[in-house]
Amino acid sequence: MSSVNGTDWIATRGAPLRGSIAVPGDKSVSHRAIMLASIAEGISRIEGFLEGEDARATEAIFRRMGVRIEAPGPGRRVVHGVGLHGLQPPDGPLDCGNAGTGMRLLAGLLAGQSFDTELVGDASLSKRPMRRVTGPLARMGARIETGEGGVPPLRIHGGAALQGIEIRTEVASAQVKSALLLAGLYASGTTVVHEPHPTRDYTERMLQALGWPIEFSPGFARLEGGHRLVGRDIVVPADFSSAAFFIVAASLVPGSELQLQRVGMNPRRTGLLHVLRAMGADIEETPAGEQGGEPVSDLHVRHAPLRGIEVPVEHVPDMIDEFPALFIAAACAEGATVVRGAAELRVKESDRIATMATGLRTLGARVDETDDGATIHGGAQLGSGAVDSHGDHRIAMSFAIAAQLAAGEVRIRDVDNVATSFPGFDALAREVGFGLRTAQ
Ligand code: S3P
């Protein structure tokens, strides 16, 4: 039966995980590919585009601003760029769906347009903090109103004269950095961003690939306004964050041996590998060249007993989307795992510290929450129960892993949002051995 909030999964222990799979394209790169190709001059062909709801929401937004985007096949897009000043005013609010990346990056890009826009989102996105972008953008001269308490909708007034600034961001956030750099394209003068910890640099790399002069190094980026972007072919690598569910599952389920083909290995994304290896995981990495300027590797994961660790705080930003899966690994490891310095988890698609702690407790694990993390006490046999994903894709997929180790059936409520980042996750999971079906 479906819950009031949509579809539920019934997940049960399956077989040892076996096979060789490819996960879909990177969500972060897919958003940026559509945005930058749209404001470039000429045609960009995108391969490996993530056919997920988040990236498609961004695509629909640019179509509504007059960009012709063809979809000649799954994962393929041909974007007819309109140039930096060629976007047209849309005929109403622009819906970012569930995507924080879409909304925050667009806030920067749209602040530089000559026309007004309004960005709206779904129930989860409508609760997420936006002042982290609107505050610094205001310092550049942007005029953006938020809803009460700094949440969406965002009303962006066009025609603002943006001015480059030098800024030290408060939170390590690629979304904040990217919003500033995208506004910087339209600003006079130079925009310089220093980060408290380096974050993913896809915006910088793609701007450079499309011909915009930019200087960047880990934790630093600098560009000036007034140049142009030129369309080109963009290849989107497989999303490490999607691969992560299978890496954790194969590490945990006895007898597993799973290959993941050509996974994007940007060092700002792969913190989970360091942490899992420190816990005892057996993950073999074979470099497989580059895709779209990003290193990719084939990963071979074999089951290995894991032990709890203190997660080094310096890895936190490099695995920020992987904590739901890590919490499951920790619950199934021997001993305690301590997570600190991860308060950002409280403002993701759900409060991921609370949703993971509640779900794990339902299944019989002991979890002590703190403001910026948790201690997960591993080793207890997970039992059966119903857990709520709170509409958060990564929570839903993480509990599908937990069920592979549980003694009984796990109902995972409200899983429709898995389609935002990983359409087809359930079919792929079944293919490699997961016990997982849609509740009737
Ligand atoms: C993203 C950055 C991260 C990440 C999100 C995607 C991006 O958010 O959690 O899933 O594409 O820039 P923050 O930059 O806010 O940490």
From TrEMBL:
It comes from the Bacteria. Its EC number is 2.5.1.19. PROSITE patterns: EPSP_SYNTHASE_1, EPSP_SYNTHASE_2. Residues 13-425 form the Enolpyruvate transferase domain. GO terms for cellular component: cytoplasm. Its main location: cytoplasm. This is 3-phosphoshikimate 1-carboxyvinyltransferase. The gene is aroA.
